[in-house]
Amino acid sequence: MDKEMYCHEKEAPIGVFDSGVGGLTVVREIMKQIPNEQIIYFGDTARVPYGSKSRETIVRYSKEIVHFLQTQGVKAIVIACNTASAFALDEVEREWDIPMIGVVKPGAKAAVRATRNGRIGVIGTEGTIHSKIYSQYMEELQKGIQVLGKACPLFVPLVEEGLLEDPVTDEIAVRYLSELIDRDIDTLILGCTHYPLIATAIGRVMGEKVLLVNPAYETARELKQLLECQGLLRENPPGLGKNRHQFFVSDAAEKFKRIANSILPYGILSANAMNMEQY
User: Fold this and answer.
1) What are the Cα distances from residue 174, in Å, to 2, 65, 125, 167, 169?
2) What is the CATH number of domain 104-215?
3) pLDDT in tens, the chain (279 residues)
4) In 132-197, which residue ranges form alpha helices assigned H by DSSP?
């Protein structure tokens, strides 16, 4: 690869996608940890939630979105959705020659490092929990780990509706998490990128003795390492006047923009609606 092409690839954006607004927790961490990078984000707001859909459907959606991100010239892709990471990452990695990471493995590694008693809880969508991908991977990392999974399907719509600090969210958290409290877990993986947005409510229910693991933070760390290893880490920020980050959705652009502006460290000006059927 000649030097000009090499530099051009380093200056290309990173693609990030999720079923909706949850992946913005990963974007927020990327902005903090590797601030020179440009991001192109896609939130599949027309088809959220992913957690109740079949593996075949999630793979099809993921392929459409990866195709779209490739048309935008991205240099790497982050699947910022636990369900899509569980069901589609291996398949899209085989199909496209571009660096990709999901959010499951970084979160699992962090939980195994953090646990003191070897009892780890995982909360996520029905798809993520039923796939058992977290327990399989953590048992590979450390024999004897005990993993307790709990599907929390209502958390995603609560976040998508912006009910981050609301009595109904607290009530649902108590209903979902009460069975984990008595199981002596000392670590809880927030196994959906929507869940860090209601971490305060989850933490109130679980108590101070349970460490919450946010895979978004760990994923940004792993992305930085991947870009360094591939020689793709951007050395300088984009020039003034250039569009720093771009946001695309499949529906409800104004609602997405409002929620995004409450999550990200600085406001976004617009979100562009895309028809994914063409991809």
Assistant:
1) 57, 35, 17, 11, 9
2) 3.40.50.1860
3) 433 343 458 999 999 999 999 999 999 999 999 999 999 999 999 999 998 999 999 999 999 999 999 999 999 999 999 999 999 999 999 999 999 999 999 999 999 999 999 999 999 999 999 999 999 999 999 999 999 999 999 999 999 998 999 999 999 999 999 999 889 999 999 999 999 999 999 999 999 999 999 999 999 999 999 999 999 999 888 766 556 899 999 999 999 999 999 999 887 878 999 888 777
4) 133-141, 155-160, 167-181
Is it true that 3-102+217-278 and 104-215 share their CATH fold?
yes
What pTM, to 2 d.p., does this model score?
A: 0.90
Contacts of 26 (CB under 8 A, 6+ apart): 16, 18, 78, 80, 103, 193, 216, 219, 220
* Residues that are catalytic: 81, 192
8 Å CB contact between 260 and 37: no
Residue-wise burial string across 219-250, b where 16 or more C-beta atoms lie within 10 A, e elsewhere: bbbbbbebbeeeebbbeeeeeeeeeebbbbbb
Residue 148 DSSP label: E
Are residues 36 and 234 in contact, defined by beta-carbon separation less than 8 angstroms? yes
The vertex-102 CA angle with 247 and 256, nearest 5°, equals 25
Tokens of 100: 């990709």
Query: Where does 3-102+217-278 sit in CATH, by number?
Result: 3.40.50.1860
The token duo for 59 is: 């793979």
Q: Where are the domains of the chain?
A: 3-102+217-278, 104-215
